[in-house]
Design brief:
248 residues; alpha/beta; eight-stranded mixed beta sheet; 11 helices; 35% helix
């Protein structure tokens, strides 16, 4: 028996997730069971992906697929907390999947090939939610365009320098509604980043994913959370997608 409020959870799972199940909103929504039944694709296993992958594994997401074709570099280690010095030169996706599996043996974790226009549609098969934790503009817009075409929601985040941003994109508003094109924005390789900034941003991305999967709270749908690490100021901006021709 798993208890009247927790069908589908084994005794070891009830013990592991007992603190989350003490949160009334989480318990009453049956969120833990929803999370257990979910399949999340995390694209990117770097500064944003590290906290996302660790937190979603710890939270009990049933299946995690990690897609990243990069290898660990010494310059990554100040912010990519899934890895250590002996990991330099090793593939991130396989390492991240292995580390996530050690965090929670109840979660099924696998590494996936590089996300491309050819591989992404098949990777999305059976996926409940996508988390865009990349720092590559081409991949970001590929994820955005593919999810938008399929009417999917996805969790998006970005961190650079001393700022972080998070949103839940979907039919209400997408990446191109907020940032029509990459513009002149620089990635971490050019702009740099303080290690705790992607860590904090990634944790909020994981929290938004759990809210969406668990059906609790008010996810950042149609809103953009921004954070300035130097001042400690955070703002949440309301997004309004521009009117489209077919709605005029």
């Amino acid at each position: 028996m798993t208890g009247p409020h927790s069908p589908g959870l084994t005794r070891p799972e009830l013990r592991r997730y007992s603190r989350a199940l003490l949160v009334p909103e989480w318990l009453d929504a049956g969120a833990q069971e929803r999370v257990k039944a979910a399949h999340v694709l995390v694209v990117g296993a770097g500064g944003l992906g590290s906290p996302v992958i660790a937190s979603l594994a710890g939270a009990g997401v049933g299946t995690l697929t990690v897609a990243d074709d990069d290898h660990v570099d010494l310059s990554n280690l100040h912010r990519q907390t899934l890895y250590a010095t002996p990991d330099v030169g090793r593939p991130k996706a396989a390492l991240a999947a292995a580390r996530a599996q050690t965090i929670n043996p109840h979660v099924h974790v696998r590494a996936a090939p590089r996300v491309t226009p050819d591989t992404l549609p098949s990777l999305l098969g059976g996926v409940t939610l996508v988390v865009d934790a990349t720092d590559n503009f081409g991949t970001r817009y590929l994820i955005a365009d593919t999810c938008a075409a399929q009417g999917r929601e996805w969790i998006w985040g970005a961190a650079s320098g001393t700022t972080g941003m998070v949103s839940v994109f979907g039919p209400h508003a997408g990446l191109r509604d907020v940032f029509p094109d990459p513009g002149d924005d620089l990635g971490c390789d050019e702009a740099g980043v303080l290690g705790p900034v992607p860590a904090l941003t990634g944790q909020l991305m994981a929290l938004e994913a759990l809210k969406v999967l668990g059906g609790v709270g008010q996810p950042l749908r149609g809103r953009l959370w921004t954070f300035d690490a130097l001042t400690g100021r955070a703002r949440t901006l309301t997004l309004r997608a521009p009117a489209r021709a077919d709605t005029l």
